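tool=predict chain=A
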Amino acid sequence: YESEGKKVSVIYDTFDTNETMLNSLQTGKSVYDLVCPSDYMIQKMIVNDMLEPLDPLASHMPNYLQYVSPYLKEVFENIEATNKVTNTTHKVSEYAVGYMWGTLGLLYNPSFKTFVNHEITEEEVHQDLKDWNSLWHKKYKNTISLKDSMRDTYSVGVMRLFDQEIKNLQATYLDETLATYDQVTYNELLTQIFNRSDLETVNKVKDELMVLKENIYGFETDSGKQDIVTGKIGINLAWSGDAVYAMDQADEEIDTALYYVIPETGGNVWFDGWVMPKSDSLNKDLAQKFMDFVSRPINAAQNMDYIGYSSFIGGEEINDLIHTWYDIREEDWQEPLVDPENYVAYDLTYFFGDTVTSETIIYINEEDVNRQLSAQYPEGSKISRLAIMNDFGDNNAHILKMWEEFKASSLPTWAIILIVIAIITLLGFGSFFIYQKKATQKKRSARRKTTKA
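tool=predict ok
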């Protein structure tokens, strides 16, 4: 910041969850000029009248305004929250500047040893995992880890519960041969389904998840990306950035190709954004200058390279970074490609829009489809299948209760059965020993009586 003529002291804190951060702010333990929560938490903070609105972007954050991805800007514009103090509805974009974004999908190893032992082919795994229902298939029993995260795992249950309804919508709105073809309408309807959280829905989702729990290896929040590399699991419900990390690690350490897929019916797209909590000590001018500073493409590229997640920002530096990482021409990606028909053309125009003038098509090998690039940037044809999961509001109580009950019965049925059998066996042995002891005592008593006689 010295290059900007501003001397700033930065106090940097991290939190394990959005809820921990919120609690710290609400209790007054911490006061910050900026925090970077997830989408649903930004909504919750707007509802609770905790945020300072942004000043006009054109005059205060020109870099962000110029370089933010047009796709993500539109997503931002469509998310709203109602301030319960003022009873006014606001767009999230009035309060937040996007930082990083990603998706929730399935990270998997098609050559996992258990799959091989059960004669499940790699092609079969690839095909199965295009569908959320595959997580319930018995052939994948004890090979799956889920997120120990209420919202993420709930979303999987929702996709299972309303699977046929979603597929019917796809047949109506995503078939280009029909007059009803309309990706925008489809996404709106999918988002409505994705955010169902009434008590009846929550109870039905719980039933689906209880069945799923019988089929999984376990729950995790951070170890999944390591567990799949070390061979503990074959499938992991993963955030896209963690999936990229795991794929890179598997490539380097065990020379094994991992893959990441968002099933065909769709899934969650999420983002983290900068917001300014209300406080008497808020330095609003410097906070907005900082947000604009990290929105410069050159700085966004450095942050993206370090963190591993995808930046909200477009621009030439980001485009160059992605091409260098993934295009088969690497640093020479701007040179003409001699035989483009031999490669897969991955078009990121939807993301960059007019933030760049250079080529936005990345050419990759066929075997690299559904790997790192796909995890960081979903295909343009698939973005209508991605939905934001909003803050559940008052219905959060239903889901929290469901989650507590779901986690309380942490042992799968097979484990409970084994424990019960063990207990019964022990009780049986105990009864046998007691019986034997009493029988022996009777014999001794009889012998004593005989001797006395």
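Residues 413-452 form the longest helix (40 residues). The chain is about 45% helix and 15% strand.
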